[in-house]
Amino acid sequence: MSKTKSPSWADVTPRADFLRRRSLIAGAGAALAFGAGPARAGLSAAPSAYSTDAKPNTLEEITSYNNFYEFGWDKGDPAKYAGALTTDPWSVEIGGLVGRPGRYDLADVLKTAPLEERIYRFRCVEAWSMVIPWIGFPLAALLARVEPQPGAKYVALETLLRPEEMPGQRAGGIDWPYVEGLRLDEAMHPLTLLASGLYGEELPKQNGAPLRLVVPWKYGFKSIKSIVKITLTAEEPRTTWKALQPREYGFYANVNPEVDHPRWSQASERRIGAGLLAGREPTLMFNGYADEVAGLYAGLDLRKNY
Amino acid sequence: MIGAVNGALRRVPVWAVYLAGLLPLCWIIWLTLAGGIGVDPVKAIEHRLGKVALWFLIGGLAVTPLRRIAGLNLIRFRRALGLTAFLYVCLHALAWIWFDMGLLWAQAAADLVKRPYLLFGMVALALIVPLALTSNTASVRRLGPAWRRLHWLTYPAVALGVVHYLWQMKVISTEGWLWAAALAGLLVLRLPGLARLRLV
């Protein structure tokens, strides 16, 4: 039996407090740099019915514990090195089997649909989890804009390749750039989010600024960061982790407590921030989004298509 | 030069090495209490303990070649290095079952059987238990030549420990390869052809 102890309210820094702390720090930094700094503009976003009522992790947890191997292997590396990343100007090349291919400027992409706040559970393949208040809009809205052609079955996505700003790309181990993909119906699902913000602010660089995918019922590595290219294809696209280790990381990567990773069980997870003695909690099928997404996989053997 | 170093080392009491061996543990405890261990204290504590164990295991293996090749005599401290390694291996395993697995013994046991890297780590732990138990002078006397044969288990134990460390990585890092190279080097130096190699 798991002796899961939920963090109490006393363990959580109230949002107003850390925002105040951040603005104090930012203000101090700005004061040093410019004498006086303009207030940082927040992102306004409407709450979403898709949000969980689970308590979100702190901004510090979400922004200092990242797998973004473009910046290094250690979970602290992205926060340490992502500052050098240039995210403006930024554009996304959309092509393949679409009626309106082209290079779309980021500002244009972000005008696709109204921003929403989606508080999603996030489950890493490494068996830890967080709850994250993303800000973004459904990928489906952007795909609808570029008019998928009838032959399109998959969506391939690509991360920025810029070794001079991404030290991890100068090291070996992975065939850069990072690529990921979804089946078109998965990509069109209303839960599939293109995120550009977090906790009411622009997305921090270590979390995949300026634009990343969030697929909450799949392991975190499907949620590709810093997207520069979206291609609609007829064939299943190559995905980085499947290419690297097909036995361990499948194309689907659905959160499934019954299908273990070859090297560890996926039956339970550790909630980041829950404390040293909190133990583990059971992992839910599709990360708790089974009601919404199980239908996508009717007739598919999820043990083979992991 | 090396004579002077050995002379200085002779004046270092063995208990000082035990005491120094506890410093990494104190550091980990301090970081945990001060909130400086990071966002995921469970993994950080577990990994730090494992890494410190690796330092002392490899350090113990380096004693003999260092004496033979460089003339540096650390043999007085080898027991302290080995027992300190044993302490950290035990704490590492304890952190795993208690903090990481949340004492879910059934899931831990199932993981152990299915995951070679966990099994390797556990076998390494099992192999060094008899070494730790016979690390006292009385055992050395009582076992005689059998003591040396028994303590040959150090080699598979450390090798399994290093493989355990490499295998848990998704992609083996540079540091991982450095540890593998250190182990390989220390083992190669014990091959019959190289066992006479001396620089001093």
Describe this structure in words.
The complex is a heterodimer of chains A (306) and B (200). By secondary structure, chain A is α+β, with helices and mostly antiparallel strands. Chain A has a single domain, classed as Oxidoreductase, molybdopterin-binding domain (Sulfite Oxidase, Chain A, domain 2, Alpha-Beta Complex). Chain A has nine helices and 13 strands. Chain A has helices at residues 15-34, 59-64, 77-81, 106-110, 139-146, 167-170, 184-187, 240-244, 290-293, and strands at 46-47, 91-96, 102-105, 116-123, 128-138, 154-159, 179-183, 193-198, 201-202, 212-214, 227-233, 268-271, 281-282. In chain A, a hairpin with a 4-residue loop joins strand 4 (116-123) and strand 5. Chain A is globular, with a radius of gyration of 19 Å. Chain B is mainly alpha-helical and 200 residues long. Chain B has one domain (2-196). Chain B is built from eleven helices and no strands. The termini of chain B are close together. In chain B, 25% of the residues are buried. The model of chain B has no long low-confidence stretch (mean pLDDT 94). The chains are: A alpha+beta (306), B mainly alpha (200). Chain A binds chain B through residues 2-4, 60-61, 64-65, 69, 73, 75-76, 128, 171, 173-174, 244-245, 260, 262-265, 267-268, 270, 272-273, 275-280, and chain B through 32, 38-43, 45, 98-104, 107, 110-111, 114-117, 167-174. Chain B: GO terms for molecular function: electron transfer activity; FMN binding; heme binding; metal ion binding; oxidoreductase activity, acting on diphenols and related substances as donors.
Topology:
The complex is a heterodimer of chains A (306) and B (200).
Chain A: H1 15-34, E1 46-47, H2 59-64, H3 77-81, E2 91-96, E3 102-105, H4 106-110, E4 116-123, E5 128-138, H5 139-146, E6 154-159, H6 167-170, E7 179-183, H7 184-187, E8 193-198, E9 201-202, E10 212-214, E11 227-233, H8 240-244, E12 268-271, E13 281-282, H9 290-293
Parallel strand pairs in A: 1-4, 2-11, 5-12
Antiparallel strand pairs in A: 2-3, 4-5, 5-8, 6-7, 6-11, 8-9, 8-10, 12-13
Chain B: H1 2-10, H2 14-21, H3 23-34, H4 41-70, H5 78-100, H6 105-114, H7 116-133, H8 137-143, H9 145-151, H10 154-167, H11 174-188
